[in-house]
Write a structure and sequence with these properties.
The chain is α+β, with helices and mostly antiparallel strands. It has ten helices and ten strands. A hairpin with a 6-residue loop joins strand 2 and strand 3. The radius of gyration is 27 Å and the shape is elongated.
């Protein structure tokens, strides 16, 4: 059974939403306890009553993180749960009950300890799989993530997925303030806010944030290209180059030497022809990858209505540059 085929009836569905953490407890006779954990992959939705009694039943889709067959493997038993966390009825009650925050924290600690103690008997990817937890952000979380990206004209775009709010502005802080207020209007709570930059790995968030700040403070009127074809380092260099941030400023702000060298390589000297510029800049590996992508985009003429003589000259220059950059790839291979 694929994970996206799994769903379950939830009793306290008014308090449930996509992104919530779940633990499934096997109840009844025999071996009882927690045999599954994961995240809700949908908001509650009404479907036909599984019992056939015609009740109003709400279900949620499940994305399991750990699934244990209780007949073949140990599970976190009801006895252990009652002893460690006595403030909850682990032996009965309706399916899909909300666990208070302080008890949920205790359960996470207990569950991790259980998994660590029995990791040797779990078959990787059969009973335990990796889940990107940042994908699941619930409106019940005390910490909310605001996702930031840049539009083609360099404007800051931000959104928070659980509360379905978005905002835009000229700088990250103003967008953060707008979204914080929108979240407060929906909940009358002010959760801890974390800024994440779209498509940027966790280890590069801080450095990328510094680059975005410098870009916004120094940006010119020109547009920026979509960042999907850039790696993180390349996009950082691209933003800093578009804003013509000096290497002196970058050194003062403790940017890595690899970034500073690439920014300097991307700066075209007044006396250089376009091909001379390409040949020099391509000696830097980050700059070479960026330039190849940028030249490819520049050679996409599908959006042009017509091509005049000056444009033909420019396109020929870029075509020659692309052939040169591609020849470097052949040499390296």
């Amino acid at each position: 059974m694929e994970n996206n085929d799994l769903n379950w009836a939830v009793w306290e569905h008014e308090d449930a939403c996509c992104g919530d953490r779940f633990f499934m407890v096997r109840c009844g006779e025999g071996k009882t306890g927690i045999c599954m954990s994961g995240y809700f992959a949908s908001d509650p939705y009404k479907e036909e009553d599984w019992s056939g009694e015609g009740r109003d039943v709400f279900y949620v889709d499940l994305d399991p993180e750990v699934m244990i067959h209780p007949d073949y493997c140990p599970i976190l038993s009801t006895e252990e749960l009652c002893q460690a966390i006595p403030g909850f009825d682990w032996a009965g009650g309706h399916s899909g009950r909300l666990l208070e925050a302080n008890l949920a924290e205790q359960l996470e600690v207990l569950w991790k300890k259980f998994l660590d103690n029995h990791d040797d008997i779990f078959v990787t990817w059969a009973t335990k799989q990796e889940i990107d937890q940042s994908y699941y952000t619930s409106k019940n979380d005390e910490k909310q993530i605001i996702i930031i990206s840049l539009s083609d004209d360099g404007e800051v775009l931000g959104y928070n997925e659980p509360f379905e709010v978005e905002a835009k502005g000229d700088d990250v802080e103003s967008v953060k303030s707008q979204l914080t207020e929108l979240i407060y209007q929906k909940t009358e709570k002010r959760p801890e806010i974390q800024i994440n930059y779209r498509y940027i790995e966790e280890e590069n968030q801080e450095l990328f944030g510094k680059a975005v700040k410098l870009f916004l403070e120094n940006k010119k009127a020109s547009n920026i290209k979509d960042n999907l074809f850039f790696e993180t380092e390349e996009f950082i260099v691209y933003l800093l180059s578009k804003a013509t941030v000096s290497s002196k400023v970058l050194k003062e702000q403790n940017f890595p030497k690899t970034i500073i060298d690439a920014v300097e390589a991307m700066e075209r000297k007044p006396e250089e022809s376009f091909l001379q510029y390409i040949e020099r800049a391509a000696q830097n590996e980050i700059a070479k990858e960026m330039l190849e992508n940028l030249v490819r985009v520049a050679l996409d003429i599908r959006s042009l209505k017509k091509i005049d003589e000056n444009m033909v000259k420019t396109l020929n220059e870029k075509l020659a540059a692309l052939h040169y950059l591609e020849s470097l790839n052949v040499i390296e291979e």
